[in-house]
Structure formats: structure tokens, C-alpha cells
Amino acid sequence: MVRAGTYRHLITIKKPIDSVGTSGEPTETWVIYAQRWASINALSGREFWSAKQVNAENTIRFRMRYCHGVTTKMRVEYDNRIFTIDSIINTGERNREMVLMVTEEV
Fold it and tell me: Which pLDDT tens digit goes with each residue over 35-56?
């Protein structure tokens, strides 16, 4: 069991909503799905060359209490940064704690 004090970073999980813009074009809007307290661990960082550009990629692990309905189509926002959800782990399949493996969008 994880103690509540371990979760000390407030994260926002957002989901995409398809809508129509002012000129009729389809747009994607992000709305808040949930806000949760989480622990954050940086797992790796790497730089790589792609199309003659240097790209940076950071893999982060957010550990938090279980939140029903979170999918990999959603994203996490924390500290004015945006993270793509790569995988979701329901720790022990007990619906008590979950781990989000994310990649920071640069």
C-alpha cells in the first residue's frame, strides 16, 4: 500500500473532444477528465536525430490512485508540460493504484 504523502504532485488528465470550428472545420479540443495527486519518476531521457532535427524524448512514470476510464487516447498535463500516455498499468489488477507511462511532448 502506498502512503498518501507519496502523491504530492497535482496532475490533470485530459480527454479529446471532437468539435466544429467557427468556419465549419473539425477541431480537437482537450477537456479535463480528472485531476489526481501523483508521484512522478523520470525513467529515461534521450536525444535522437529525425529529419535533420534533434529531438528530445523523456519517459516519465506517474503513479496515482486508480481512476476508472483513463485511456491511452488521453493526455496528462503537469507544470505547463504535456505528456502523451503510452501505457496504463492497473497495479495488481486491484483497482487501487495505477501507473501511467508517458512521453513528454516537445
Answer: 999 999 887 655 444 455 545 5
